[in-house]
Amino acid sequence: MTVLNIAMIGSDDLAKAIAKATDQRDVHTYVHKESSADGPRILSIIRPAKMPERIRPFFNSLCAARVGLIEVSAIDATFGEVLVGFASAGISKGIFVINPPQGEWIDEDQIKAFVAQAGLSSWKQGSTDGIELRDALYGLMDEISGDLESAKQEPLVVPIDQHFNVKGIGLVAIGYVQSGSVSVHDELHLLPAEGPGTVKSLQVMDDDVEQAVAGDRVGIALRNTKEEHLTGGSLVTHPAVEDKNKGISIPLCLEKHEKSSIELSVSPFQKRVLAVGDVVHASVDLQFVVGRVESIDSGLEVAWDSPLFIRKENPPVVLLAQLDSKPRIMGSAKLSRLS
Length: 339
What we know:
CATH architecture of the largest domain: 3-Layer(aba) Sandwich
CATH superfamily of the largest domain: P-loop containing nucleotide triphosphate hydrolases
Number of helices: 6
Strand content: 35-45%
Order of helices and strands: EHEEEHEHEHEHHEEEEEEEEEEEEEEEEE
Mean pLDDT: 93
Structural class: alpha+beta
Low-confidence stretches: none
CATH class of the largest domain: Alpha Beta
Distance between the termini: 42 Å
Shape: globular
Number of domains: 3
């Protein structure tokens, strides 16, 4: 089973024309499933419901997604910020749909110019027809199939956004598998609590499975885990392995940052310059952590209010934002840990 997660900014009507609505929380999700010779192929649309009022659900959708979809109903500040978000997150493939309110008009050439200026020149224009958009999204899935497969071979990272107790099952944690795979009976390590866990069972798309892989939204039934080890920002990974007798040494795949040196690629529409004392927010792997700029002398240095965990292997870009800035997104960042 191959899943393509799509971050979408647009209307509920357009999303429902492409896929079936499945969940209505901070982000609305929609799923379409088709069979192929290689097994089921799934489009999973992740649509932040309260953008621009709340930016964190938008960041979460960008963290989980591989491609983007924007329905353009107006040329305004929100449209500009959305473009910056997709570009800063490194989502280089996507579709934009021009769909003004009835009786109004949007300049197509102006939209294309803004999309290119934001750094999304490889994005394609689509129609408002749901079936045509669905086909176009499957086309994007084919284009990045190699990346989707390689992500399954990386170390396991599952950010948890929900957890609860289920009668007869026990503690269940739910999140998107960002990289790697997890199987029934796997031993797990929970961060930042440093707690243990064992996979009792797994569910993907309401089906019991033996394994979940990168792209899947998975429910993990846990054994030997305390509920206090889980929070809205918990990360699940495999524990470090150290066996001197067998000569095996596999470190934890995530690096803990309490203070970071940051290489910031400032977004095209951002004019604000960070200064010592400024408060920033970092978003990566569904974490949303507050930091404060401590130095700009030899580069940007930020101390985090709570630990930020960064993948050691193929780390994704970190979105850096300042919530009192306009636009709020500063750009994309590469982090190096400072001791």
